[in-house]
């Protein structure tokens, strides 16, 4: 597709469109209820839940509904207001109405409401739920002010959409998380802190730009602490640590572990996106497995089951996968891994760099990710409401960018 790709997409490694469909424009997330997400739990878990605990059913299964707050901050809010420390299996966007499953530490919980969330008990399970128990996510999204509402031609091209990581993975307007992760992987901990505090883009808010400009001078740290808004809690943690004389590694550790890990994961995502863009541009198939590929077997069109090498026969129900960068990555694995190894060299990195002795909790082995988006049960109605399901870890906004082709994703709600 020759439609120009927005700069902010290219900054995240998303360098092209793969559909010929002429975008419909419009906006998303005008209201929270315009973007609804429901987590889909495995049938094997849903069919085996007890309403009361006993010796077999010991683990509480909780349902977290929220809006106006991302999952990480929802966890903090629930702990502060209900005293319950929950664990969620996926990160859900702030600008949405979302429903997801959770469990809790020590099986102690309190149902109730907080400012942005509702926490309720579903029942008790035999084993604590894991990420592997989540099949995917179901979306209901309203597109406001599209140029047209007939998108039947788009449906024929849905299968060609790559499984890019969306802008949310990189911090949306600021697109900073992967840059922090890059400096952490390169052991430039001072620069990682400075990047998180000071980096901005043209898509950032004016107030954020002013705060970050002040952070460029360490002499301003105490002043910034007095004026920094509540929403910049991570920046406040960093500044407090630096003002108290802590080193840069300790300052980074003032940020909750799940968010620290997002920095490194975002850098992995950036490298994945870059590699996927280059391979698609070179005409490589992302929907059909070829010899020496890693492949996922797909169940029910949505669940990624066994990972395997390309078999000599019976390649039906398989989708190609790529080895994510990490300390177990090998450049000889396959066609996508060979390209990724070239990109790593351009970044002056080797796989062993992803093992961090200084911050071992942020070391990443690698993992695998499927290459096509794998959209299921797509439908649309009204003025324009679309419904669909995608596997866990995939981004609805990647489908939406191909459908809408926004000239300014940030202003369009991405």
Descriptive key words:
single chain; 414 residues; alpha+beta; 13 helices
Largest sheet: 9 strands, mixed
Strand content bin: 15-25%
Number of helices, where a helix is a run of at least 4 consecutive DSSP H or I residues: 13
What distance lies between the first and last C-alpha atoms, to the nearest angstrom? 20 Å
| Topology pattern, helix = H, strand = E | HEHEHEEEEEHHHHHHHHEEEHEEEH
**Mean pLDDT figure:** 93
- As a whole number of angstroms, the C-alpha radius of gyration is 22 Å
Helix content: 25-40%
Shape: globular
Q: Are there runs of 5+ residues with pLDDT below 50, and where?
A: none
Number of strands: 13
- SS-based structural class? alpha+beta
Describe, in plain words, how this protein is organized in 3D:
The protein is of the alpha+beta class and 414 residues long. The protein has 13 helices and 13 strands. The strands form 2 sheets. Strands 1, 2, 3, 4, 5, 6, 7, 12 and 13 form a 9-stranded mixed β-sheet that branches. Strands 9-8-10-11 form a 4-stranded antiparallel β-sheet, with no helix packed on it. Strand 3 and strand 4 form a beta hairpin. Helix 8 runs antiparallel to helix 9. It is globular and about 60 Å long. The model has no long low-confidence stretch (mean pLDDT 93).
């Amino acid at each position: 597709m020759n439609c120009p790709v927005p700069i902010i997409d290219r900054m995240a490694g998303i360098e092209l469109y793969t559909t010929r469909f002429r975008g419909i424009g419009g906006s998303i997330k005008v209201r929270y209820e315009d973007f609804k997400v429901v987590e889909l739990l495995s049938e094997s878990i849903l069919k085996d839940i007890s309403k009361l605990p006993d010796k077999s059913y010991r683990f509480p299964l909780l349902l977290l509904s929220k809006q106006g707050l991302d999952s990480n901050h929802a966890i903090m809010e629930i702990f502060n207001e209900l005293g319950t420390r929950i664990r969620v299996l996926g990160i859900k966007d702030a600008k949405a109405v979302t429903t997801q499953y959770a469990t809790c530490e020590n099986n102690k919980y309190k149902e109730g409401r907080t400012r942005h969330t509702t926490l309720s008990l579903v029942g008790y399970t035999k084993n604590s739920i894991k990420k592997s128990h989540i099949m995917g996510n179901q979306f209901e999204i309203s597109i406001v002010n599209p140029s047209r509402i007939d998108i039947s031609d788009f449906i024929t091209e849905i299968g060609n959409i790559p499984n890019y990581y969306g802008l949310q993975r990189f911090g949306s307007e600021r697109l900073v998380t992967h840059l922090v992760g890059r400096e952490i992987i390169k052991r430039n901990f001072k620069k990682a802190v400075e990047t998180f505090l000071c980096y901005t883009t043209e898509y950032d808010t004016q107030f954020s730009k002013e705060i970050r400009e002040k952070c460029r001078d360490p002499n301003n740290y105490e002043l910034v602490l007095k004026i920094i808004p509540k929403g910049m809690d991570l920046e406040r943690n960093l500044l407090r640590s630096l003002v108290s004389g802590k080193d840069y590694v300790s300052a980074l550790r003032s940020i909750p572990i799940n968010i620290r890990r997002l920095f490194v994961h975002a850098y992995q995502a950036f490298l994945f996106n870059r590699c996927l863009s280059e391979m698609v541009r070179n005409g490589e198939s992302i929907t059909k497995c070829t010899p020496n590929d890693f492949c996922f077997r797909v169940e029910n069109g949505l669940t990624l089951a066994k990972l395997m090498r390309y078999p000599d026969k019976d390649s039906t129900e398989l989708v190609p996968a790529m080895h994510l960068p990490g300390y177990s990555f090998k450049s000889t694995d396959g066609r996508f891994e060979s390209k990724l190894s070239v990109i790593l060299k351009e970044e002056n990195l080797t796989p062993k760099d992803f093992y961090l002795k200084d911050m071992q909790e942020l070391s990443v082995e690698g993992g695998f990710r499927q290459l096509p988006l794998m959209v299921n049960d797509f439908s649309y109605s009204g003025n324009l409401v679309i419904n669909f399901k995608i596997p866990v870890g995939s981004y609805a906004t990647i489908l939406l960018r191909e459908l809408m082709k926004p000239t300014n994703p940030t202003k369009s709600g991405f």
